[in-house]
Design a protein that fits this description.
Ribosomal Protein L22, Chain A, 3 helices, alpha+beta, 3-stranded antiparallel sheet
Length: 112
Amino acid sequence: MEVRAISKNTGIPPRKARLLVDMVRGKQVEQALDMLRFVHSPSAKIVSKVIQSAAANAENVFQISSSDLKIVRIYADEAPTMKRYRARARGRISPILKRSSHITVVVGEQES
C-alpha cells in the first residue's frame, strides 16, 4: 500500500529542495527524519514535515506502523515563479526570480 503527501508552493527553490530529497530517497521514514534533523537548513524542516505528513496519513488511514514505512518515491518539482524587479542604474531594471517548489512524498510498507 502506497500513501502520499504533497506540499505545494513551498518557499524553497527546487534546486535546493532536490539536495535534501536525493539524500533521503529510499530510506526508512525514521532514518530519513533523523538525517534531516541534523541538517542546518530551513528547507530541511519543510521536507521533514512532508515526510511526517505522509507517515501520519499511513498510520491514521491505513493503520500501518511508522516503523514499517519506507520512502518509495520523493521528488521536488518546480512551482510557479514569482517575478520581481530591482531598479538599476540609468533607469534600467533587473529581474528577480523567487522560485518555489512542490514536494511529493510517497511511502509504502517495507518488504520483510
